[in-house]
Amino acid sequence: MQSQPWIVMVIILTSLLHIVLSVESDLSNGDKVLSLPGQPEVSFQQYAGYVLVNSRMRARRALFYYFVEAETEPASKPLVLWFNGGPGCSSVGLGAFFSHGPFKPSGSGTLIKNEYSWNKGHYVPQLAQLIIQSKINLTLKGMAMGNPLFEFGNDFNGQDEYYWSRGLISDNSYKLLSTVCNTSTLLSQAFRGNLSEVCASVNTEVSKELTLSIDTNNVQEDVCVPTTQLHLQNLNPEISSRFQLQPSLDQQKVAANIDACLPLKIVAYLNRTDVQTALHAKLVGVTEWTPCSKFLNYNLLELEKSTTQLLGSLVKSGISAMVYSGDADAIIPFTGTRTLIDGLAKELGLNVTVPYRAWFEGKQVAGWTQVYGDILTFASVRGGGHSTPVTQPERSLALFKAFLEGKPLAES
């Protein structure tokens, strides 16, 4: 990919997301990654470098990118553009190396192949709209959003009932959240640095029951005792323990297939000088690479802006959309998202074309799905957390393949 002006509008969302495009690109040899340190032999090409985003301004700025070709027939495959949420978190570190890329650091200086890499086969709505409006020579095929924040009140207040329904909080705490200070009110006050005594009191009671021993990214899995919180560091410390929007770090392993210390291994790997050189990366104004950055100065009040109508306008224009949610995610619970998508479909006049049913990966139920007008899809991922490719890689890959191929999720 040659350095070129690229217009991108970025709005804060707490979700994992991607856009699928058909595009021809001329990747420059200068950006080609010959090999990453410790990398196993592979058949596909990799590229990394910078895309200029404001060449006309005095202070030139660029976005770092990491591009991996499909394993087979890359020229005929759609281009997938992935952005992590956070806000302010790395799509390379927490996307490619943590979630769905071809490699994961082993911790011993080498990379291991990701068996479920996706190259085998609230940024999204805004960027999709911008692509259409700017008349860039790209064909936007569709967009998929994982565990997305659409409506601040609906999505965050969904935590309250979800905590209670999973037995994470008591009846009394649920009553306090329902009648005294709900989660969206708590966050709204905290964003403004004006946490009321009554909301602080409610949060204290809820936090006692949730504790740091429950990872709200995935309430079904055991966790390590967090040593570092990567998110909401600027908020009132009284509320930060409840909102672990990114993985906690520790030197232990939990569950059979989830490496809880993988984020630490990624930090160590991407801070190696030889790795940064191989990726053509330059640390400008910072001393080390971190999974999430405060230097971007995101305005957390942007979280309160709804993107539901924007999603609706894109669907109405003919853009296929899939919204998927891990059912073990307590950050943006699937219950609120499912209700919101159903309401949007009714507003758009879309009839149900695939009634609510289970979908399968292998012989096991992978989740549930409902499709509206053959253009708007909701799907849950059974056992999936806030980052479904990490917690349910097989099911997430099956969902991703079906979306790319325009096929329904498997019925058996």
From TrEMBL:
Residues 1-22 form the signal peptide. One of its GO terms (cellular component) is vacuole. One of its GO terms (biological process) is proteolysis. Pfam families: Peptidase_S10. GO terms for molecular function: serine-type carboxypeptidase activity. The keyword Signal applies. SUPFAM superfamilies: alpha/beta-Hydrolases. Keywords: Signal. InterPro entries: AB_hydrolase_fold (IPR029058), Peptidase_S10 (IPR001563). Belongs to the peptidase S10 family. This is Serine carboxypeptidase-like 45.
